[in-house]
Amino acid sequence: MYTGDGKQLLRRARMYNVTIYDTTPGEAAKAAEQFSLFDPNELRCREYFIKYWLKGRSEVAKADVQTLEQLRKHFVEKPSTGMTAGEQLKRINMLLQVDWMLDDPNGLNEDFREYTRLLRANGLGRVVLFGAENLIETTARCRAG
């Protein structure tokens, strides 16, 4: 990536294991949309996460706790067959958020392990440290708050 005038290099990326994907622009746009957009359950999870950021479970309304438990069940049972690595990481991230709000240390431990396992399994072992560091730091902030 270069500056607007094209004179100075700002960023460079090296791509590995590139697969040619023969598709129409419309199909590519649809695939990108499916990957990047939130479905209704993911949107609900994000709304609750914003609402209850850095709050303990005792501060979560009872009705919302029930909804969060239903969301957790949904994300746990959501089939990962056919999902890309990014989609799988997104699903685990949703579980992490729900487990933070439910103050579920066992769920968080399970989520952390799955998140880092997915990173390693997809050749992203070098980012495990950074990914896990952010997850651990956020959890520590949530639990300390």
Explained architecture:
- With 145 residues, this protein is mainly α.
- The protein has one domain.
- Helix content is 63%, strand content 0%.
- It has six helices and no strands.
- The chain has helices at residues 25-36, 40-51, 62-77, 85-101, 105-121, 128-144.
- It is globular, with a radius of gyration of 18 Å.
- It starts with 24 loop residues before the first helix and ends with a helix.
- The model has no long low-confidence stretch (mean pLDDT 83).
Question: What can be said about this structure in brief?
Answer:
This protein has one domain.
How is this fold's topology laid out?
Elements: H1 25-36, H2 40-51, H3 62-77, H4 85-101, H5 105-121, H6 128-144
The total domain count is 1
Tell the overall outline: globular
The proportion of residues forming helix, as a percent range, comes to 55-70%
Please state roughly what percent of the residues sit in beta strands, choosing from under 5%, 5-15%, 15-25%, 25-35%, 35-45% or over 45%: under 5%
The total count of helices amounts to 6
In whole angstroms, the N-to-C terminal distance is 40 Å
| Biggest pleated sheet | none
Q: Work out the number of β strands.
A: 0
From N to C, what is the helix and strand string?
HHHHHH
Structural class estimated from helices and strands = mainly alpha
Q: What's the rounded overall pLDDT mean?
A: 83
